[in-house]
Amino acid sequence: MRSIARLSLMGTLMGLAACTGTEQQAQPTGSYRNLKQIFKEEAAKVEQQRPAVTKTVRLNGTTSTTTLADTASLPALFQPFMEADISKPSLQDAYSEAKIANEFNGDTSVMYMAKGNQGRPSQVILNIGRDRQLRSADITSAANNLLYRFKQELHYERNKGIRITTVQKVAFLAEEEMEVNVQFGAQNKE
């Protein structure tokens, strides 16, 4: 009886060790898949540049525009981009990848498309310059079922701005539509 218990315990431990080994191998190796890290770096670069920032918010047709005096709130504007991270081990095989090189300027477009029902994000397009720096990003997320419909489009263009468009509809409630445009201007002087 003790030998069966020992074998069972050894089998469990070996199984756990095997799982640990495959977890490490499951880490994506794609150079542009870690969106969380990419956009943390982009937010830090923008914050360091200290640009004049104009933020326009349109909520269900009502628009308001403000100028942000402090760039400390910029990382929060990059949060939806960071949340679209597809480098999680659980998403390793959830996306197909395609690369298209622009022969004229040396830029490359890297596209990730959800293979199945993965809707957040369903598509990621990164435009990478010849200098291996992110030039722009377009990320689309969507969810649709009997009770809820959601679509979000994120656009980032380096040194120019961010646009986030979100439409959601919950059953028995009015549709909500919000668009946030953030424009980066010339550097603030202090």
Would you summarize the structure shown here?
This protein has 190 residues and is of the alpha+beta class. It is built from 4 helices and 9 strands.
Count of separate DSSP helical elements: 4
Count all strands and give the number.
9
Low-confidence stretches: 1-30
Largest sheet strand order: 2-1-9-8-7-6-5-4-3
Proportion in β-strands: 35-45%
Cα-atom radius of gyration: 22 Å
Judging from the principal axes of the Cα atoms, what is the shape? flat
Fraction in helix: 25-40%
The residue-averaged pLDDT reads: 80
Q: What oligomeric state do the depicted chains represent?
A: single chain
Sequence of secondary-structure elements: HHEEHHEEEEEEE
* Structural class label: alpha+beta
- Cα separation of the termini: 78 Å
Largest sheet: 9 strands, antiparallel
List the keywords.
190 residues; alpha+beta; nine-stranded antiparallel beta sheet; 4 helices; 9 strands; flat
Task: Please describe what this structure looks like.
The relative contact order is 0.16. It is built from 4 helices and 9 strands; from the N terminus they run ααββααβββββββ. It is flat, with a radius of gyration of 22 Å. Strand 8 and strand 9 (176-187) form a beta hairpin. The longest helix is centred in the N-terminal third of the chain and has 24 residues, at 2-25. Residues 1-30 have low confidence and may be disordered. With 190 residues, the protein is an alpha+beta fold. 25% of the residues lie in helices and 42% in strands.
